[in-house]
Amino acid sequence: MMSNATTRNVVVMEFLDMFGKTKSIRVSDPKPDLTAATVEAAMELINDLNVFNVISQGGPAKIKGAKTVQTVTTDFGIVVG
Q1: Burial of residue 57, with CB atoms counted within 10 A of its CB: 0-12 exposed, 13-18 middle, 19 or more buried
Q2: Secondary structure letter of residue 58 according to DSSP
Q3: pLDDT the model gives residue 54
Q4: What is the mean pLDDT of residues 46-54?
Q5: Is 59 helix (H, G, I), strand (E, B) or coil?
Q6: Which of 10, 33, 62, 64 has the least CB density, counted as fewest CB within 10 Å?
Q7: For 55-66, what is the mean pLDDT?
Q8: Chain centroid to CA 73: how far?
Q9: Is 60:18 a contact under the CB 8 Å cutoff?
Q10: What is the pLDDT of residue 58?
Q11: DSSP code string of 3-56
């Protein structure tokens, strides 16, 4: 039985809430030409909108950082039924 592998890219934007806990927003399949400046601008907008303040009912969040994560998923092809 042959397995299939798929690769997926995800941009992970991390913020610190007022309690020092990391909160993340993940964006699947970002455009290949995405730049650090674009991600940073998006993070600043998210922070300006107080997204995490509303969720945690606390103070404003701080930008922690961002990264692209690439995952490879391999399906063993096992079918039950």
Answers
A1: exposed
A2: S
A3: 61
A4: 80
A5: coil
A6: 33
A7: 79
A8: 18
A9: yes
A10: 65
A11: -EEEEEEEEEEEEE-TTS-EEEEEEES--TT--HHHHHHHHHHHHHTTHHHHHH
